[in-house]
Automatic annotation (TrEMBL):
<keyword id="KW-0418">Kinase</keyword>
<keyword id="KW-0067">ATP-binding</keyword>
<keyword id="KW-0862">Zinc</keyword>
<protein>
    <recommendedName>
        <fullName>N-acetylglucosamine kinase</fullName>
        <ecNumber>2.7.1.59</ecNumber>
    </recommendedName>
</protein>
<dbReference type="InterPro" id="IPR043129">
    <property type="entry name" value="ATPase_NBD"/>
</dbReference>
<dbReference type="InterPro" id="IPR000600">
    <property type="entry name" value="ROK"/>
</dbReference>
<keyword id="KW-0808">Transferase</keyword>
<keyword id="KW-0479">Metal-binding</keyword>
<keyword id="KW-0119">Carbohydrate metabolism</keyword>
<dbReference type="Pfam" id="PF00480">
    <property type="entry name" value="ROK"/>
</dbReference>
<dbReference type="InterPro" id="IPR049874">
    <property type="entry name" value="ROK_cs"/>
</dbReference>
<keyword id="KW-0547">Nucleotide-binding</keyword>
Amino acid sequence: MLACFDIGASAIKGAAFHSAEDRPLARREATPLTDLDRFAAVLAGATADMERAEGTAARAVAISIAGVVDARTGRMTCANIPAIHGRTLAGELSARLERPVFIANDADCFALAEASQGAGRGHNVVFGVILGSGVGGGLVINRRIVSGPGGYGGEWGHGPVFGCVPALRGRLEAAGLPVFDCGCGQIGCVDTVGGARGLERLHRFVGGAALASHEITAGWLAGEAKASEAIDLYLDLVSGPLAMMVNTVGASVLPVGGGLSACRPLVTALDERLRARILWRSDAPLLVPAELSPEPGLIGAAMLGLTHLSEMRDV
């Protein structure tokens, strides 16, 4: 049995898995943001509860988390949960919980789950796309997460795509292309326009009211002028960088999750714009709704843990 957790800034979701095909009911607790002892205690208590309910000990703990682990140092980057930011979390939790602890980024776990059991089944190269409050992604090749230095991989939301130098930024803004400062410290990242907050920013940019993203998509579907203008600009800005990702990694399917993916017509429109911009032509959709809602993070964590346990047995 594996004790699996999907951890974000608002909640810790946990469930016991015996195989990656399990679909257990997740329990949910608030995430302790500033106290490592309380954070570890929540995981320990949840793991003990799972062991009592399942009648067996958890062989390991597997975690999908809204942060990244530097493979060289083991240190977490997780600004939204200060208690664990900069900590060698897997090692510290392993010592406290007295069993192996495996940790991966939540977008990577999403991509891993979809690649193996969801919309990416049968594809060798799967790029998981997150269109939530911001933009994220994960790359899986032959059912293994691809991660680079610092623990980052598939992060297509960051990098100065629009207006990377001051002179170019001025020309783009003069031509009517929005270039916004990004929370990562760079200028003109896809994250500034590609998520729900980015769509809301674009709507204001074209002269629309300050509306929530779901109100903007509803207005677009109803034919409202400013919402349609914002969505058209959104599709143009996001489809280009996404096409570069497809051309670069050779993905043959892109499962999409996150809040914006709930608007299926938006997913369809972005897919059509994407397929018009890649080097090869596909008559079949590439950007497709994820299939493993509502808990792809937990499923991905289970797959991560089972893979690590299998490799430990083989050593």
